[in-house]
Fold this protein.
Amino acid sequence: MEQNEIVSSNKPKKLKRHFIIWVLLLSFVMMLLGQILGEVICLPLNRLAGDRGDIQFALMYLSFIGIHIIVLLFCLLWEKPAFRSFWHVKQGGGKGNTFKMLVLGLLIGIVMNGACILIAWLHGDLDLSMGVFHPGYLLFALACVFVQSAAEELLTRGYMMKTLGERYGVWVAAIANSLFFGALHLMNTGITVLSFLNIVAIGFALSLVMIYFDSLWMCAALHTGWNFTQSLLFGLPNSGIVSQSSWFHLEGARGSLCYDPVFGVEGTIVAVLVICVFGLLVFLRGRKQKA
């Protein structure tokens, strides 16, 4: 059976700096410092955007570039194994950080979130109208959303998964980073117990991708596809954050098991089921490949 690469040796390394409380605290600090740095970096761009609300909305996602800088710099100095794993390309076997896994992740994220939206629309919960298609802006927005999504994946499924996995094993690392990921959204508008569990569930599903496919790039792309679809394509709330610019426009919505008017599709039982099905498929496929 093939050794999982999140844990680099047969026995977890008992490094003091990988103690779970320290990793959680440090991750929170890096998130805060990264957000501050990102705001400073994007300040001139926001001024150039002026009253262009659509550009400023995309720049909100781009401001997560600061988290990339902080996490990468920290790992380069003190967590070199984690730093190398961010770029590691493993050829063959449908694993690793490859262009194929990147594209596959993006498509899966779009399909998963699109399925949730389609169910809500068929249920009569959404009134959508098609706006003007601006391919240039959508590509720019996609790149900005990738920066945001990849930043969160770099911190959680990257740094946290690697360091906690070396000390406690991959399953403790998966649970811990998923709960941390959910906690990052506790201050979002419209958060509920169900939406919190939903975010934890997608965090755990992405952790399964890391465990069985060893592809942080796939995690980042899937996260991007999910966020981009609901926010920039269909104009729905992204974890409670109201979309300011999108291809489709939300004219009206009603709450149901399929849609939360404040938090979006992420606050529904439908999304939980979609995420659980995806997680189960990843688990079964991964176990089959390792058998």
Q: What stands out?
A: The radius of gyration is 19 Å. The longest helix spans residues 135-168. The chain has one domain: 16-290. The first strand starts at residue 126 and ends at 130.
